[in-house]
Amino acid sequence: MITLTAILTGASSALLLLLAAIHIASGKRNVQKTLFILSALCTSAAMAALTFALASKSPEEVMRRLQAHLALIIFSPALVIPFFSFFGRNDAGRRLRSWLPGMITFGALLAAAALLVPAEVVVSRFQLAEGGGLWRIGVTAIGRILALLALAVNVLLLHTFENTYRAANVPAKVTLKYPLLGAIIASIMNFIMMSRLVLLSEADDYFISVGALGVIFFCMTILYAGWRYPVFEVRTMPEKGKALSVVTVVAAGLYLLAFALITWTSNIIGMPYERFGVMVLSAFAVFILLAILISGKARRHLRMFVNENFRPGLYNYRREWRHYARLMTSSSTVDDLLSNTISSLCETMMVRKGLIYAGIGGGKVADHGLDSDESTAASSGELVELYVNSPLIMISRHRRHGIGGGRSTAENAPRAEVPGWIRAVSFLTIGGEVRGFIALGRKDFGRPWSEEDRDFLATITDQAALALENLLMEERYLESKQLESFNRFASFVIHDLKNTVGMLSLTAENAKDNIHDREFQEDAIDTLERSVQKMRRMIDSLNAHKAPAAISRATTDATTVAGDRIASLEQFASKKDVTIRLESEGGVQAFVDPSALSRIVENLVLNAIEAIVDGGIVEVGIARHGNTLTVIVSDDGPGFDREYLENGLFRPFMSTKKNGLGVGLVLCKSLAEAHDGSISVSSLPGGGATVKVEMPAGG
What is the CATH number of domain 317-472? Predict the structure, then answer.
């Protein structure tokens, strides 16, 4: 006898067979599609065997066909589990292929065992309606275990699908939403049927019909999704290290717990299971509905879920704003900003092609989904000419419609050449000046551009323009800092040149009266040689990019180095009536850079000489205490005022001298610190100053 249940199971078998035939005929084949075809054929055969069992009139036919159904159902997870593991994912690959043959072999062995073992091991009893037709099945303890395993497999499949969907981008979610909805409905109906077997060890034609309806619903969603979208071309990559969702597992556990409580309570109160179960589930459904209606938060979450998954033209501005804010602030260069923005924007808006142009540095471009010719044609920056007080222009069949701030139509817009793939142009404006544009093409799945799309594009364009302006300001700041560093280094060089020029100028001035003096000639030649060597060292420093050359330590007689440098300054000191005294205990040996030590002594002594107004004394002390070399330069000039010591000391370009550059002490400090040393300054209230430099002297 053909019953409604047999019709439903037969329809599910036919739909599965139709799906397999459609995808076989499509010709385009991949691993996901192949596994789906095999899974559909296997499940179709299982549902066909169940259909024949439901229509059988004799007990022998029922048992034989139930046994075939059971064997196919036992084998199906070997195909269905790999399919859902592959479906929509890009990370299954080799690992799954390595154990796929073993899994299929194991499933085939279990199916063969089910065919060889008597069906009575699983099916304890069944009842036929008058005139034939199966309408109730009872199972043994083994049958209950198999039903429980079927529930576990169902939870695993739904759990895998859920995490695939969560990891998908917006276009992939649009493609996967209907299969996921079908899988959820089919799982719920399968849970209803299997939980009946687990808890009550039986299922009648009503519950079998529910299970068949779940399969039909899943087939319809796959059929619809395959007609509208490229279902088997979706690829997602779940993030590694991120905790997987457990919503499916928790929901399945709560469902089974609720069914167990319903069964137990119905037995206690003596009410029929079906009636009591319907009452409880109806009350629960009413409670959920009231909670959604009363709770504003629940309504908001429900609305967000529907908009994100079933109305992708509507945008969650709060979430998207946070996403793009993080994306743009994490972009360290203009190139990164452009690339990240256009790829993420095309993905969010489900646009196939896009390009972003910034008219800086000769023009910078990033594109998404364009070939080289399309990118070249749109990256010249000519689309900026489309701007006529309209931040966003929609292009359709050679007509241009300005959005906001004015209108730009085919009559009043400049005749810029617009590539055929472009459907919208949004302009990056900074300070009222157009600095670039975002051009987007057609939307995926043939969707029209909506008002939401235009608002969202305008919002992200404004945000991108702000991020671009911030990056440009940051680049200008870095350039100014680099220029400042170069100027600071140049000031050091100028300071040394100034000292050298002073020595040469003094020699030239004295040469007018002493040019024929043999001793003066020797001193002049020595001054010239040292000046030339010093200028050569400065030239080498200039060639060393923007930082002074690294120090080169050597065993040095610090007393001799200081004495030579003081001797070169004697003429300059005598002209200002300044006496230089060197105090040292003899040859003080230290493992330092002799050139750096010479520059420290020269700068400190010159500073002291220039600080003295009407004659005075400069004392230079060289000593070694343990592993520390100490250089002390004192003078009896006016000293440093308190404000300079607190705010100007060791700051470049701040000097107490009229024509000073303010880099002498800064240079000494940097040379001392290059030796892991230090410098300190003290000034007496009644006049005079002391500068002390300490550096490691080595072993």
Answer: 3.30.450.40
